Amino acid sequence: MDITLAYAIGLGGLLFLLILMNFRQWLLLGWKKVVPFSLKYFVYPQIGHRLTGAWHPAGVIAGLLYSGVNVFCVCFKVRSVWVAGLRAANLSLINLIPLMAGPHLSFPADLLGVTLRTYRRFHRSLGLMSSLLLGFHVLTVLVEKKPFPLQISENLFGLIGTISLGILVPLSHPLLRRPFYEFFLRLHQTLAVTATYSIWSHLKKSHSLPQKYIYVTIGTFLLTVLVQCGLIVYQTGVVGNGFARVKITNIKEMLTREHVIIQQEVMTLQ
């Protein structure tokens, strides 16, 4: 990026922020009027199904917009099917970044200030879109009949990453997930790590922008883990107060000792 373009973006962003701060009261007033209407007509009405879960109009609209933006990014001023496939691969990696935002979904949900149920839907949508974009990328390779010898390690890792993400999608269906959730969770995490490492190995020698997306994914994961560990250390009071201590006493010994003390007190009173 040109330095002057970065300066222009920064200056424009600062001016826009100042304008928002100046009109914040009007924005808050409008927000208070819009929220009840949105909740009444777009969030509270829900259609439930045992396989797909509950859906409301706001979720459907958000899903359509999300899908439309990704399709637009793939097709906008595309010169060939091969270029569209490369764009789809890049978008798949970008959608992969928030999927690896932490070892568990609860902490990223807390950071974003949303419920775990909402973040799970967000996670599922990103995972499905990332897999579909990757599938389109693979399809363009097959259509264009590009050479893809598996004797080359980068190509082999690309195949492994594709298979890993391909297994994750059907495996996440409620019919397969709910009966064996603990096993599913560990397998899901293993496949996610396998896919990330395989994609990194697939792009290892390219030194291009897609490879940086993998580094951002790994960095985001490590940063989230670091922040979570820091919060745990702070909340448990380890810093400055030492480690918490627990004294465990056998219940029988404790009752016997209390009984002896009570007997001694009774004898003293007599």
Structure, explained:
This protein has 270 residues and is an all-alpha fold. The chain has a domain at 59-119 and 126-237. It contains 12 helices and 2 strands, in the order H-H-E-E-H-H-H-H-H-H-H-H-H-H. It has helices at residues 3-22, 24-43, 57-75, 81-99, 106-112, 116-144, 153-171, 174-177, 181-202, 209-235, 238-241, 251-269; strands at residues 47-49, 53-55. Strands 1-2 form a two-stranded antiparallel ribbon. Helix 3 (57-75) crosses helix 4. It is extended, with a radius of gyration of 27 Å.
What does the secondary structure layout of this molecule look like, with pairings?
Layout: H1 3-22, H2 24-43, E1 47-49, E2 53-55, H3 57-75, H4 81-99, H5 106-112, H6 116-144, H7 153-171, H8 174-177, H9 181-202, H10 209-235, H11 238-241, H12 251-269
Antiparallel strand pairs: 1-2
Helix pairs in contact: 3-4, 4-6, 4-10, 6-7, 7-9
Helix content: over 70%
Lateral arrangement of strands in the main beta sheet: 1-2
What is the CA–CA distance across the termini?
93 Å
SS strand fraction: under 5%
The DSSP helix count reads 12
* Apparent shape: extended
* Radius of gyration computed on alpha carbons: 27 Å
Transmembrane segments: 6-23, 126-143, 155-176, 213-234
Membrane topology: Multi-pass membrane protein
Keywords: Ion transport, Membrane, Transmembrane, Transmembrane helix, Transport
Main location: membrane
